[in-house]
Structures are given as C-alpha cells and as structure tokens.
Amino acid sequence: MPTDKHLYEYAVIRYVPKVEREEFLNVGLIMMCKRHRWLRVEILLPEARLAAFDSPVSSGELARQLTIFTSVGRGERSAGPIAALEPEERFRWLTAVKSSSLQTSRPHPGLTTDLDAEFLRLFDELVR
After folding, report:
1. What's the DSSP call for residue 5?
2. Element containing residue 24 per DSSP (H, E)
3. pLDDT tens, 58-91?
4. Could you give the CA distance from residue 122 to residue 54 in angstroms, rounded to a whole number?
5. I want to staple 41 with a disulfide (CB 3.0 to 4.6 A). Which of 73, 113, 116, 123 is the partner?
6. Residue 108 has what DSSP assignment?
7. What's the whole-model pTM score?
8. Non-local CB neighbours of 23 within 8 Å, separated by 6+ positions
C-alpha cells in the first residue's frame, strides 16, 4: 500500500543579538504544509546559551517577542490580523527576510509521510 508523501517547508527561528556581528542562536522551528493547511511553530529558549551572548535584549523581552511570533504562527486571534491569514501566508510573512534580532533561515523544502514526526526530528536536530 503506497504512502503519500507530503511536501513541506521549514525554517529555523534565530535570535540575532547584534545584527552587525551576524552571530545567532537557533531558538525555534516553523514548518508548513500548504496542501494540508498545516503550520507548526515551537520555541526553545536556552537560557545558559543565551547568557554567552552580549545581548542588548533581556531574556524576558526575547521570550515576549517569541511568544508573539508563535501566536501569529498558530493563528491565535489575540495576535492580530496577520494571524488570521491562511497558514501558508503566515509562514511567508514570518519567514520574510528582515534585519532584526528575530530572524528565520531561508525556507527549506522536504518530503515526509508524517508531518509531526518530521517536525520533531528537525526540531531535535536543529534547535534542541
């Protein structure tokens, strides 16, 4: 019995304390499958690793920014009009290239038979 593979895109969420230094810390993952109208975002803020950076932003402020990012990704009403967009539009908006302290990698494609299992595999490999 053939198993359908799902085309997905993912990007690593990065904290960039000082954009001019181009140093970053992977703090999360966002993954989207347009065909299934599926989008998932998870964050992991490693306090010990964050302390190694000379960060102009407190860990509390960074956590607040990441909560807003996650709320938009999850489509929560409290996150405003962007959160009301379709999953693929929210993904594109969140992964747009920007010069700020919260960025994403370029989106990467993949194929999988299990979106949630693939998300967890990528999260463990790239963030944890």
Report:
1. P
2. none
3. 889 999 999 999 999 999 999 999 999 999 999 9
4. 28
5. 73
6. E
7. 0.92
8. 16, 17, 53
